[in-house]
Amino acid sequence: MSKHIVILSGDGIGPEIMAEGEKVLAKVNERFNLGLSWSHELLGGCAIDAHGVPLPDQTLEAARKADAVLLAAVGGPKWDTIERSIRPERGLLKIRSELNLFANLRPAILYPQLASASSLKPEIVAGLDILIVRELTGGIYFGQPRGVRTLENGERQGYNTDVYSESEIRRIAHVAFQLAMQRNKKVCSVDKANVLEVTELWKEITTEVGKEYPEVQLSHMYVDNAAMQLVRNPKQFDVIVTGNLFGDILSDEAAMLTGSIGMLPSASLDQQKKGMYEPCHGSAPDIAGKGIANPLATILSVAMMLRYTFNEGEAANAIETAVGKVLDQGLRTADIWTEGTKKVGTQEMGEAVVAAL
Ligand code: NAI
Ligand code: MG
Predict the structure, then answer these.
(1) 182, 103: one domain
(2) Which of 201, 233, 256 marks a domain boundary?
(3) What is the distance in A from the centroid of ligand 1 to the CA of 334?
(4) Domain span at residue 221?
(5) How far is the C-alpha of 271 from the C-alpha of 333, rounded, in Å?
(6) Which reaction is the catalytic activity of this chain (predicted)?
(7) Which pLDDT value is given to residue 80?
(8) In the annotation, is 235 catalytic?
(9) What pLDDT score does 1 carry?
């Protein structure tokens, strides 16, 4: 079986953090004899500079053929003034939809060493380990019709359409239940079924899918309450499954519980477990080129890739354990630095993880 990864370093801090992700990948590949290979392609601003488009055909073809894609981040002020349809972020949206990556997994895990970096009280977040499963290719972000129209009275009106078909709900629900089976066997489906018909269907289908997983405890929550519960008592959750819009908002909210965006990986999967793995943050142009960006979200994205696409749970665990070890050693990049810890740069952090492995 081929096990090939396409690496997209992108823009801004992308190449700096990806260099460290690659060192970790090379280390686990050797230590666990994984037989992985990888190659580099262009996506985002760097692709615009080289080819005039953010997602060149060559990149898309290589990504289609690969088993997984590892991305750092794209975008930056240099490309903010060009026409919207060929901006770096468009390349990202396009590769996600072309690869049909409908399941976005965003874990929010608090490393105990970083408890003081969270904005919530330590007792509320200590031991936090939740997983948000967000539907990524449907809902109001893609629904038609959409636009801004002028009414007969001359007033303009903006509109979008929230749509989900049964099959779209069913496949994301299965992903959530299957992941819950490997965790604490709890799924909370978040909707607004008291007001929105589309989420009434969401509730009905998730309930139906839930019957196929009798070991998993399914609950339903309205999104406004879920937003509140995430800051009141986040540890009540195990897996949260929700649509594109609610998932976007709730996953950012959950991310902040853990302290820094520099720590958070993500996975976007298709039906066959092919996936694109990337840190949740962007290209951080404000700190690019300074060697101070936190590479851990990218390194933890490598771990997610090994776990979900390549079924190499042991190697994934080893990376996560190594990250814990470097935090135990008191090493911190600037974004997670607190009094009494040792401030290190991007490269030093990456190499410490390799050494811990
Ligand atoms: P951002 O996530 O790049 O930065 C937000 C803040 O977090 C900045 O202060 C930055 O320095 C800091 N930060 C981010 N990652 C960090 C890391 N690894 N270590 C330390 N600090 C880190 O978001 P922003 O500023 O809104 O966007 C910058 C560019 O990135 C824009 O062009 C945006 O479109 C793009 N972007 C790309 C994404 C992607 O490729 N998936 C996602 C989000 C934004
Ligand atoms: Mg968002």
Answers:
(1) no
(2) 256
(3) 15
(4) 129-256
(5) 36
(6) (2R,3S)-3-isopropylmalate + NAD(+) = 4-methyl-2-oxopentanoate + CO2 + NADH
(7) 92
(8) no
(9) 62
Whole-number pLDDT of residue 102: 96
Domain-embedded: residue 213: yes
> How many distinct structural domains can be found in the chain?
2
Q: Kindly report the protein residue whose alpha carbon is nearest to atom 37 of ligand 1.
A: 282
Of 283, 347, 353, best ligand 1 pocket probe by most atoms within 8 Å of the beta carbon = 283
- What was the ipTM of the complex prediction? 0.97
Q: Which ligand is nearest to the CA of 280?
A: 1
Say yes or no: 220 and 303 in one domain. Answer: no
Nearest to 295 by CA among 313, 281, 285: 281
Taking the C-alpha atoms of residue 18 and residue 335, their distance in angstroms, rounded to an integer, is 17
pTM comes to 0.91
CA 31 to CA 194: how far, in whole Å? 52
272: in domain: no
* Residues of the chain predicted below pLDDT 70: 1
pLDDT at position 93 is 85
pLDDT digits (tens, 9 = 90+) for 32-52: 999 999 999 999 999 999 999
Check whether 84 is labelled as a binding-site residue.
Answer: yes
Give the residues surrounding ligand 1 with Cβ less than 6 Å away: 13, 17, 73-76, 89, 92, 261-262, 278, 281-287, 293-294, 297, 335
Q: Does 80 appear as a known binding residue?
A: yes
